[in-house]
Amino acid sequence: MMEQVRVVLDHAGDISPISSEEYLRIGGYQGLKKALEATETIIDTIKASGLRGRGGAGFPTGLKLSFTANTQADQKYIVCNADEGEPGTHKDRIIMVEIPHRLFEGMAIAAVAVGASQGYIYLRAEYPYVATILEQALADARRQGLIGSNIMGSGVDFDIQLFIGAGSYVCGEETALLDSMEGKRGEPRFKPPFPGVQGLWGRPTIINNVETLSNLPAIMVKGPKWFRSMGTERCPGTKLFTLCGNIAHPGVYEFPVGTTIRTLFEEVGGGCPRGKKLMAVQTGGASGNIIPASLLDTPMDIDACAEAGATFGAGDLMFMDEDSCLLDVLENLTEFFEEESCGKCTPCREGNTQLLRLIREFRNGTAQEGDLNLLLELSNVMRGGCLCGLGQSSPNPILSVLRFYPDLFVENSYRKGDLAYA
Ligand SMILES: Cc1cc2nc3c(=O)[nH]c(=O)nc-3n(C[C@H](O)[C@H](O)[C@H](O)COP(=O)(O)O)c2cc1C
Ligand code: SF4
C-alpha cells in the first residue's frame, strides 16, 4: 500500500495516547513552547500556512483566529468540534484515540493566539470510549503542567474540559453546538453575530474541528513554507480521508490534499471487494455529491471537487459497487436528514419529509408525472431557503444523481409505475 504522509497522525499508534511524557519524547508540545515564546507571531504563521478548516467548510483558520484576537472581552473560549456526526466520517475519532495530546497542544496554541483561558472539547455521545481516553490524557497533561494554570511555566492559564453531546447531528453545526453547551435545545442560531465575536455565553469563541487544531503544532514547529510544500496552492497540507462502503481496505488514511480519488480507491483502498466494478462514489459525507466512476481522476481538493461536481467536505469517500441501487442510497440518506432536522425552519422540517416521500415514490415505482419537477424545485428551494447547512445540503446527493444519472429516475421508476397502473 502507498506510504502515507503523516502530519496529524505522525507517531499515532506508536505511543501511549494517555502519556504526555511519551508525546514530549517525540517532540510534542514544542509547537506550544514556540507559541508561548512568540505569541504575537502565531496568527501570522498560521495565516501564512494557508491552513483551512477540516470540518467541512474550509474556512481559513488564521483569519478566524484573527477575528477573535481582535475582539476585546473579559473571557474568550476555544471549542473543539468533536461531534463527528456525519455518517461515514470517523477521522477525528482516530486522532483522539491515538494521539490526543496533539489536539490539546493545538487548542492551547489557538488559546495563546487569541487570549483564551478556557477550552472545551464537544464530543459526540456515541464515543464513550473516546471520552475515557480524553479524560485520562487531560489529567496527565494537567499533572505535567501542560494545561491548567501557568502552562509550561509561562504564566499563561489554559484548561480544557470535556463536554459530551446528547447524540444529535445538527449539534455539529457550530452555533447549535453552542446552544447545546449552554443547556438549550440544540438549534442553529441566526448569523451574524458569528461565534468568533459572540459565541459561548456571549463571549468570543473559536470553534474548530479536531483535525484543524491538530495541524497547528507542526505548523508552529516546521513553519508555513514546509506546510505549503504539501497539498495544493489554495488548500495546503494533508487531509485525513475516510474510505468506506464497498472498498477492500476501509479506514482513515492521511495523504496530501489533492490526492486523486482514483489513487485513494485503487492504491490505498484496494478497489471494490470480490472484484466488483465501481459504480459511484459519494464524496464529502452524507450531504456530499454522488459522482460516477468516470470522475475517479478528480483530485480531493476543495476547488477541484467543486469544479468536477464532487464535494470535498470532511474528506469522506463512500464507494458503491455495481450491485448498489442509487435510489436505495438516496432513501437511506434522506431518512437520516429527515430524522436529524431540528425543525427550526420550515423548508428543512417539511422539505426533508417531502423529499423522502418523493424518493420512496420513485423507488417503489409509483411516482407520477410531475414528481421529478417537484423534486428538483423542492431541492432548489431548500438549498436557498434553509437556515443551516443541514437543510441547505441535504438535497445535494439527490441533485447530483439527477445530474450524473439523468435517466435513472425515469427508467427505474416511471416504467415500474406504468406497469403498476397498467
Ligand atoms: C449539520 C452540520 C453538522 C456539522 N457537523 C460538524 C462536525 O461534526 N464536526 C465539525 O468539525 N464540523 C461540523 N460542522 C461544521 C461546523 O459548523 C464548523 O464549520 C466547523 O466546526 C468549523 O471548524 P473548522 O473551521 O476547523 O472546519 C457541521 C455543520 C453542519 C451544518
Ligand atoms: S436547516 Fe434544518 S437543521 Fe438547520 S436550522 Fe433549519 S430545520 Fe434546523
Describe this structure in words.
This protein is α/β, with parallel strands linked by helices. It folds into three domains: 209 residues, Rossmann fold, CATH 3.40.50; 84 residues, Ubiquitin-like (UB roll) (Roll); 96 residues, de novo design (two linked rop proteins), CATH 1.20.1440. Helix content is 45%, strand content 12%. Strands 6-5-9-7-8 form a five-stranded mixed β-sheet. It is globular, with a radius of gyration of 22 Å. The N and C termini lie far apart (54 Å). Bound molecules: flavin mononucleotide (FMN) and iron/sulfur cluster.
Topology (SSEs and partners):
Blueprint: H1 20-25, H2 30-37, H3 42-49, H4 61-69, E1 77-82, H5 91-98, H6 100-114, E2 118-123, H7 128-143, E3 159-164, H8 174-181, E4 205-209, H9 210-222, H10 224-228, E5 238-245, E6 251-256, H11 261-268, E7 278-283, E8 290-292, H12 302-308, E9 316-321, H13 326-340, H14 346-364, H15 371-385, H16 389-393, H17 396-404, H18 408-421
Parallel strand pairs: 1-2, 1-4, 2-3, 5-9
Antiparallel strand pairs: 5-6, 7-8, 7-9
Helix pairs in contact: 2-6, 2-9, 3-4, 5-6, 6-9, 13-14, 14-15, 14-18
Bound molecules: flavin mononucleotide (FMN) and iron/sulfur cluster.
